[in-house]
Amino acid sequence: MYIRKAILEDAEGIAKVHVDSWKSTYKNIISDEFLKNLSYEQRKNLWNRNISKKGNYIFVALNNEGEIVGFADCGKRESNNIDNSGDLTSIYLLEEYQGKGVGKLLFKQLFLQFEELGYNRVFVEVLEDNKTRYFYEYYGAYLFKSEKITIAGNELNLLIYEWSNIDEVLSKL
Question: Which InterPro entries does UniProt cross-reference here (predicted)?
């Protein structure tokens, strides 16, 4: 497994992972109709913009064949007004690569990026029914707040977790 910073040519591979992982991760959480309508092309356009945007830090995980099997990104959300803090925006893996340490490698890369940026607090938003929240809790995230959101007509609980010590997280990785 190889982790590197994303380049524009990665948008298509990231889009495929994004759509496919949403379909497996959010099955029975978000409506089947919404998931069925996710589009590789739409997500490719989104990732072209995300990769080009200053202040976004996107990393990809490549398998031995050089295919993108996961990605992660971070930065600072426009809604984040807390000094010296950033946001872990996403970590997604193809289902067959989950539970094999790939997510941990991407997670570490994000926290190294946070350290380089001088952040001392990190936030992540995760749906309550998404089991990834246990991964975040394992690495010391604690619940900062929760709120209700609506996705595809479904009201869901969004949990916002926080890490307040980046060095402590990195020492566990």
Answer: Acyl_CoA_acyltransferase, GNAT_dom
